[in-house]
UniProtKB/TrEMBL annotation, chains A, B:
Protein name per the record: TetR family transcriptional regulator
Species of origin: Nocardia rhizosphaerihabitans
Residues in the DNA-binding region annotation: 36-55
Keywords, comma-separated and alphabetical: DNA-binding, Transcription, Transcription regulation
Listed InterPro entries: Homeodomain-like_sf, HTH-type_TetR-like_transc_reg, HTH_TetR, Tet_transcr_reg_TetR-rel_C_sf, TetR_C
Pfam family, one: TetR_N
Amino acid sequence: MVRTMPDRTRRSERSRVAILDATRELIGEIEYAKLTIEAIAARAGVGKQTIYRWWPSKGAVVFDALLAAAENPDGGGIELPDTGDIAADLTTVLRATAAEFTDPEFAAPIRALTTEMLNDADLAAVYRERMDEPMRAAKKRRLESARRAGQIHADADLDLIVDMLYGPLTQRWLQRSGGLDDEFADALVAAVLRAFDPD
Amino acid sequence: MVRTMPDRTRRSERSRVAILDATRELIGEIEYAKLTIEAIAARAGVGKQTIYRWWPSKGAVVFDALLAAAENPDGGGIELPDTGDIAADLTTVLRATAAEFTDPEFAAPIRALTTEMLNDADLAAVYRERMDEPMRAAKKRRLESARRAGQIHADADLDLIVDMLYGPLTQRWLQRSGGLDDEFADALVAAVLRAFDPD
């Protein structure tokens, strides 16, 4: 029994990778609402039960597939650019984020997953731990560095700054309530930095 | 045929009211995900087809039921308080909105409907026309009055101000990513007004 373990582990890992690959392929091919665990299992060449052994829901396996495709799969090691100019760096980051959200291929599965998460507390907790918290920590490190450099007010609430930068952008995207172009990103960054001006 | 029309119209209107009442009752009794058109029809004493004749989806009938229960059912006639002090008025409004969102009974159906709307473009269009646009117009009228009074900058982009006030609040609520207390509302209003200070 002990001698067969490594083989079983290798087989498990192969199945896991096949499932994540199949999920990622299918996300690009069919609408999220029409994606099923059955379709993922068939594409990966595994049984449905193999998927349910590791993931509690479609949302959970899609989330892992998207994470595995991300540059920083555990959300760690993320750093915002730091050229020493907080306005320039935030503008770069917000413009890039706005551009990603307007790319339908990138945005469609994220939108579906986000809305699923809003009513699924378990999935939301995984998202918070693995993506939102490491991302927020990275944003706050960059803001902390700007605060040390005297570019934002010493008393500024960094969580509030993060929410003021990303809340309007996320809402415009999710609710399709306004443009998400460079002009919007620039105006938003400028307004938030004025609000926390050190002078 | 012509003589029977008034009766048919009255019967239709009675059914419509019964459906909206039944929906509103059921929203308070069972989880949104478990609410069905069948249950609404049974409670209202009508056939399922009667509901589908007027509403294309569960989300649509729930949305109408919530609108019918609102003080300003067509979103018109809404005005923000105007005491002449924009900081005080926005603080009042944002504190009240944050408090509503933390009330589970108020917030649960709105959350479910919001998430449904994010993936249903038709429902989103109805929401935009009947709720979001009249509400946004009312917010902008109050900001316009503050701008005339010299309390916000003459060049301020009023849509951006609305997004900066409501985006962070909506995101904290939907993603459960932070507190929604008076302290948050106060800090948010103060920061946004600093960003658009006339001086």
